Amino acid sequence: MSVRDLTVLGSASAVPTKSRNHNGYLLRWDGHGVLFDPGEGTQRQMAHAGVSANDVTWICVTHFHGDHCLGVPGIVQRIARDGVEHPVDAAFPASGRQYWERLRHATAFRDTDVIRERPVSGERMALDTGDAPFTLAARRLSHPVEAYGYRLEEPDGVTMLPAELGARGVGGPLIRRLQEEGRVTTPEGRTVTLDECSVTRPGQKVAFVMDTRLCDGVRELADGVDMLVIESTFLNQDAALATEYGHLTAAQAGEVAALSGVRHLVLTHFSERYPADDEKRFVAEASAAFAGDITLVHDLDRIPMPQRRLT
Length: 311
Fold this sequence. Notes:
Layout: E1 4-10, E2 24-29, E3 32-36, H1 42-49, E4 58-60, H2 72-81, E5 88-93, H3 97-104, E6 115-120, E7 124-127, E8 135-140, E9 148-153, E10 157-160, H4 162-167, H5 173-181, E11 183-185, E12 191-193, E13 198-201, E14 205-209, H6 216-222, E15 227-231, H7 239-245, H8 250-260, E16 264-268, H9 279-287, E17 293-296, E18 302-304
Parallel strand pairs: 3-4, 4-5, 5-6, 14-15, 15-16, 16-17
Antiparallel strand pairs: 1-2, 1-18, 2-3, 7-8, 8-9, 9-14, 10-13, 11-12
Helix pairs in contact: 6-8, 8-9
């Protein structure tokens, strides 16, 4: 059975708190698992969430600030210890390779050869996902150190229209042939094309945007996605600090979602300066601009993908 959801392993920013671990997000997608920004403590959080190293097929690091990567050593060593046999691709900014190497080989352990490095460079880059049921692209963001956001997309498919199939005498095995070949000839000798009996089914899309100021990269990543997982480190009262440190406010996250046609806005990466009572203020500021679904995450939340668009 295919599963598509986001497991939140941590949702703090630079400083973890008693209720929020450093970052960590596992996107499960039809048997694949994309682990974004494993911060300190991610390995233990995975145990609490009921997911394992065997669920991970990609590790995507946005940048090399500690709250986004200090969990890499534990994840790598757990992959080795658990004997994960499938390839695990690791995407990270190429400019930070020295930090990747330090994290990848942080301690003495029996190593694994399943990790395949996929360094990211340039303004935008498409990553080779092989036979995975999605594409994955990286886009440069605006932060004091080089940082990238990621966008996962499922290719468009088709939705068959039973009434049109019936009207044209297409049934049984002919339907599968029509889907595979694009046209069939019915027993009555009629040629029927796929376009006559189907409509395009948009593929689902997810964007993952961490530490950044507002920039073209944020908008490009967010454009038309079903789920936008985005940092909202600051409230609007601290917008100047957000810009100085290279972060977003909840209000800016809401504005991006509204302008980009996002369906579900997921807020995370909260500064420790705000008490738990301020959570409703983050939602209020985001919802002032964005009228769609908003989730303010907590550690160990599991957020399903929105229902698929039919057309």
